[in-house]
Amino acid sequence: MSIISHHDTCVFHLRRQPPRHFAFLAHLLLVAQRERERRKKMRLIVHNMLSCNIKGVVNKFPLLIEAEKVIEKEVDFNPDFLRHMFAKIEWKALVDGARSMGYSELPDYAPDTAALDSDESFLRKFHHALLELHLDEGSIVCPETGRKFSVNKGIPNMLLHEDEV
Amino acid sequence: MWFLCVFYHRLLDFRKPEVEALAELFGEEIAENETLQWRLPEHHHNDTPFHFVQLSSEEIAQNIAKRSILVKGMYELWGEGTCYEELRDSIKSYPDSRKLPFLTPGSTFRISVETFGKAMTFDEQKDRIYSLTYIPFEGKVNLKNPDHNFFLMEMDESEENNGLPPIVQRRIFFGREVGFADRKLLPTFQLKSRNYLGPTAMDAEMAFLMANQAKATSGKLVYDPFVGTGSILVSAARFGAMTMGADIDIRVVRDGRGPDCNVWSNFKQYGLPMPVALLRMDNNLPPWRSGLKEIFDAIICDPPYGVRAGGRKSGGRKILRGTVDPYTVPEDKRTDHIPSTGAYSLVECVHDLLNLAARMLVMKGRLVFFFPVLRDENGGEVKFPEHPCFKLVAVSEQILSSRYSRVLLTMVKVEPYSEEIEEAARLMHLEFRENHLKWLEDGNIHSSVFKPSDASQIHADSKTFKDPKPKYRGKYV
C-alpha cells in the first residue's frame, strides 16, 4: 500500500504546483523507478531451499550471500504460514543469511516450537528475516567451489554451465 | 443433507471434481477411498446441469458455491416433478418444519425463474410465479436484497433437449438458494486485460479451476515449476495462497516486456501479494538442498508439451545427443556465459515433475497439471503417468480439436517419499516411456495437431458430405 500512497502524494504536489523544473519531473521518475525496484527481490525463504548442484560438489549448502543491494519491504504477517515454514527451515542458514544482509536480531539457535505460539516478538523477527529482507542485486556463492549464481532484479539464476552439469 | 447443485453448462468434465475438491477444502469429512455422494434427477444424463450432492451442512454448500467457478448455485430442494401438478404435490409433501422458517411474516423474499435450453417471456415467468400460491408465503417481496431467494427452474419440454442427449426428460425444480457463485472474478481476471502475456498464458477460468483443484488457500504455499508469465499463480494468489515459481527462460521471468510488464506486474495489477520467489532453474537438475522436502502444499502447472511451447533443459542439442563432449567455458567468459539448452521431452518432463512433487509436497498435498492426449479414434484407454506416492483423484478432459485434447490431472500425495520409492518410480517411468514410444518421436504431438489428417482430406474432396452441427455436444461445450 505504501507504494500507492507515495505516488498519490506526488500527484497531489503535481496538481498544487505545476512542475516548471525538469528536475522535479526527474525526481518523479526516480521515485517511480525506486518503487518499481522495491517490488522484486530474492528472499531468505528461497535462499534456505537452494544449494549448488554442480556435479561432484559435496559441501553445497548454505550458499553464501554477497549482497550488493538489500531492500526491506513490508509483507502481510501470516502466523499459520510461518508455523508451517518454521519446521522446514534450516535455522543456521537463515541466521547467517540474515546477518549477511544486515539483520542480526535472530537468536543463534532455533527456539522450541512452543515459542511460535507464545512469543509474538520472535514470530515477527522470523517473519522479517524470512520474507521481508530482499536481495535485489548480488550473488549467492557456492561454499566449496566459489561459483557465483547471480541474483539480478531479485531473480536467482541457478542454471548451470555446460561443464558443470 | 442433499442439495441441488446447478452448474454452468461448460467444461462438463471439470464440474464434479471442482465441487469435490472444494468440499474437502471447506471441511467436509470424506472417508478414505470414498468421494462425495452424487445423485442424478430421474431420467437425466450425466451431462445435465442439475445434480444432487450430499454435504454435511448448509455452510459447506454455501462456501463451495461462493468459491466455485462452475457451480451456478446450491439449493435446498423443496419439490420437483415432470409437470406443475407433480411439482405442487412434491412441494406440499415437503415437511413444514423445513419450509415455515423461511416463510415468516417478518422476512423478505424473491422468486426467480430460471430455464435451461429455452427462453421464457416475462409474462410466462409471472404466470409460473403466481401459480405457486399454494406455498404460504407471508413475508414481503423484495427484489433487490431479499432475506430468502427462491428459484423455479424449468427445462425445455420439446423433444430437442438443447444441449443434452435425447434421453433426458423435462423436469421442474423449486428450491431455496443456499449459495451462489461469484463469476465476477472472471471478467476481472480475463487475459485480455492482463498486462503481461505469453503464448501459453492460462485463461482465467481454467487457472481458477486449477487453483480450486489444488485447494489453494490462505497460509498455503503453491509452486509452479513452469511459471512463465505467472497466469496460474495469479489465480492461486487470488485465493490467498503464497506463491512461488520457476522457469528456465530467464527473459520471461526476469525481464518480461519492461518495468511495468512482467510477472510481478501481473500480481500488482490485481493488488495481490507478490510471489515469495521467482527463480530461474532447470527442472531436470533442480538446485534444492538435500534434506529439503515436504515444503509445498500444492504444485500447479501446465508443462510444456511441444505444441505451442517446447520444454528445454540444460545441455546443448549436440551434448545431449552425445555427438560432442561438454566444453569448458573459459574463465574470462564465465560471468556472462549463456548456457545452452536442449529439447526436454514431455515424458521426461512429467517424470521430473512427479519426482519433484513426490519429494516436495506435504502429505495430502496436491499435484495439478495438464497432460495432452491424442484422441484415439479406436477409443483406446489412455494411460496416464503414475507414481507410487500419488493417487489420481480427478481426470477432466478439455477437448481442444477433433484430434487432441488436454486432461487436467489431480493427484494427491498418499505415501511419503523415500529412496526406494524414487527407484520404483524410475522403473514405472521406464515402463510408461516404453508404452509411449510413439510420443517420443520428435514432434509427434506437434504434427498430429498441426498437420491435416487423412480423414479430413477425404472430406475436403467430397464437398457434398457435411456434418450437421450436432445439438448435443457433451464435452465440447
TrEMBL record, chain A:
Q: Name one Pfam family in it.
A: Trm112p
**Matching InterPro entries:** Trm112, Trm112-like
Annotated Gene Ontology MF terms? protein heterodimerization activity
GO BP: rRNA (guanine-N7)-methylation; tRNA methylation
Source organism superkingdom: Eukaryota
Record-linked PANTHER family: MULTIFUNCTIONAL METHYLTRANSFERASE SUBUNIT TRM112 HOMOLOG B (PTHR12773:SF3), UPF0315 PROTEIN-RELATED (PTHR12773)
Q: Which family does it belong to?
A: Belongs to the TRM112 family.
**Subunit comment for this entry?**
Interacts with TRM9.
Name used for this protein in its record: Trm112p-like protein
Automatic annotation (TrEMBL), chain B:
Q: Which cellular component appears as one GO term in the record?
A: tRNA methyltransferase complex
Kindly list the GO molecular function terms attached to this UniProt entry: tRNA (guanine(10)-N2)-methyltransferase activity; tRNA binding
Q: Which InterPro entries match?
A: DNA_methylase_N6_adenine_CS, RlmKL-like_Mtase, SAM-dependent_MTases_sf, TRMT11, TRMT11_N
Q: What is its main location?
A: cytoplasm
Report the residue ranges that make up the tRNA (guanine(10)-N(2))-methyltransferase TRMT11 N-terminal domain in this protein: 3-183
Report the EC number(s), separated by commas if there are several. Answer: 2.1.1.214
Q: Which PROSITE patterns match?
A: N6_MTASE, SAM_MT_TRM11
Q: Where in the cell is it found?
A: Cytoplasm
Q: What is this protein called?
A: tRNA (guanine(10)-N(2))-methyltransferase
